[in-house]
Amino acid sequence: MRELIVPLGRLNIVTGPNGSGKSSVYRALRLLAVTARGGVIPSLAREGGLQSTLWAGPERFSRAMLAGEEPVTGVRRHEPVSLRLGFAGDTFGYTIDLGLPLPSESQFALDPVIKRECIWNGPVLRPSALLVDRHGAVLRARDADGEWQTVPQPVASFDSMMTEFSDPRSAPEMIAVREQIRSWRFYDHFRTDAEAPVRLPQIGTHTPVLSDDGTDLAAALQTITEIGEAAALDAAIDDAFPGSRLEIVNHSGRFEVTMRQHGLLRALSAAELSDGTLRYLLLVAALLTPRPPQLLVLNEPETSLHPDLLPALARLIAHASTRSQVLVVSHATRLIAALEREEGSLSVMLEKQLGSTRIANSDEYDIPAWKWPSR
Q1: Same domain, residue pair 53 and 93
Q2: How many separate domains does the chain show?
Q3: Which of 67, 155, 170, 352 sits at a 20 to 30 Å CA gap from 343?
């Protein structure tokens, strides 16, 4: 992926053929999210380091290359090597720019460094809208009178200003943006194999937010029943499995998911449920959370689900989008079609052009204005 600016609404569907960049969009959002938790450098290392994220093609394409009249060849790069991530909304915008470190003898010489971070007011970065600005180790913020004040303590090259600076009196905007990003929630491929912990009883406590791995499913579902949308939970189960209902069994403080189905004389335990049924229950718990996040991202939620469950899942996702901004990365045509029928949905079809991800038929989209801050 070279550069991609994506417009987002309340309910967003990101789709496209294999290799078009869907997973890159998901990973970019997750990487952006960990900046607010202080894990951007370790997360990059786990992904293969900064080099693995960089655009592998030429810095610029000639007209002849784009027209296919001559082969794509590399030329000397003039722009600095960087990985830039950011987002903007009606209230605040944020961006981070990571680059290569200066050569040194340090054992951490492969770690990328944070070159610049910015927070601004409104959807478009302008000098007059800039509120917090970090250049290298120097961090400054506007005071109540709009004057720039430099923060005395320098910021380490491997630390985001979002985690190192926490004085709400000097930069309340940074605290607001940090908490906004920290509320983002991501769900990927849940483990549902025969040995998955979710199939076994787990210690149960109030669980308003399902964990990333879904091991606390029973507690999350019971929490929805007691303090959340119990009627919506029952409706979601009946929508997918007519005549069925959930029962959470408490084994001396350990909770277990069971399901009663029409025609059976006993409830089925979590160990007996199919992968698709269990995965649907995990998605129900994630989408009906009593603490809806500002942004909820689902990566290929259709995995392991029977196609007949996808319309019910689409209705559940649409319900969640009334409380959170939702982004779904998918290639399941039935799920995509069902979501696109929902009012206010925005479908973003990705494609590759000479190895670079772009939005297909982008002339039809109102691409938001965006400006990267310079170093």
Answers
A1: yes
A2: 2
A3: 352
